[in-house]
Design brief:
The model has no long low-confidence stretch (mean pLDDT about 90). This protein has an eight-stranded parallel β-barrel with strand order 1-2-3-4-5-6-7-8, surrounded by five helices. The chain has about 220 residues and is an alpha/beta fold. The chain has a single domain, classed as TIM Barrel, CATH 3.20.20.
């Protein structure tokens, strides 16, 4: 099956000013964004509190909640009503009732799995979610080295649930985009390759162009 691959800017900010700046940097080309939210415990970085998160009304927002106890933020997530909420399979509580609550509110559900997690160990979650995020970097650290061997998980997850939307987080840039785009992914989240350049729109469109290339030259 031919899949449409979507390049999604990732936003990770520690302050209201930094958050607004990142929103404004991608506003002229982004219509779907990946927003990282961390409590500073599950992931070492502390991001802007979820109560201060917002996005333009025409966007689709994916909230990636890096928390050991996501139920503590459940009320706020439902209030924000993102298109997709991604929770970690390594969380310290049962995610099934949380996913059920989100689905009742019309929020798509996603599962993130860290490099050390084998997909089969979280099969009970994969069976019920709409999206699986294969995480290949370092939590809360844009620009950290990515473990490209994590691409092997794509086929494993796809075999479990062929219709699943599969996302990737880690090491996405112009140089790696073509390989990632042809690895049976649906969504490729891009952090530092957009947040740390002078012209993010130019880089974004260069990444999108890479998706349509089939070989080494074209």
């Amino acid at each position: 099956m031919i899949r449409t691959v979507t390049v999604v800017p990732a936003i990770l900010a520690e302050s209201k000013l930094e958050y607004r700046t990142q929103i404004e940097r991608v506003n002229n080309f982004a219509r779907r964004v990946h927003i990282d939210v961390s409590d500073g415990v599950f992931a070492p970085a502390t991001t802007l509190d979820i109560s201060n998160i917002w996005w333009p009304k025409e966007w689709k927002a994916d909230i990636h909640l890096m928390s050991a106890h996501p139920s503590q933020q459940l009320d706020m997530i439902m209030k924000l009503a993102p298109s997709l909420c991604i929770l970690h399979g390594e969380a310290s509580e049962d995610l099934l009732p949380i996913f059920a609550t989100l689905k009742k509110e019309g929020i798509r559900t996603g599962l993130a799995i860290l490099p050390s997690t084998y997909p089969g160990l979280v099969r009970q979650y994969i069976d019920v979610v709409d999206h699986v995020l294969i995480f290949a970097g370092q939590l809360g650290m844009q620009g950290s080295p990515a473990d490209m061997m994590q691409m092997e998980k794509i086929a494993i997850v796809r075999s479990m649930k062929p219709e699943l939307e599969i996302g990737w987080d880690g090491g996405a840039n112009v140089s790696t985009m073509r390989a990632l785009a042809h690895a049976d992914l649906d969504v490729i989240n891009v952090g530092s390759a957009l947040s740390k350049v002078d012209n993010p729109a130019e880089v974004y469109h260069a990444m999108v162009a890479e998706i349509d290339k089939n070989g080494v030259v074209i």
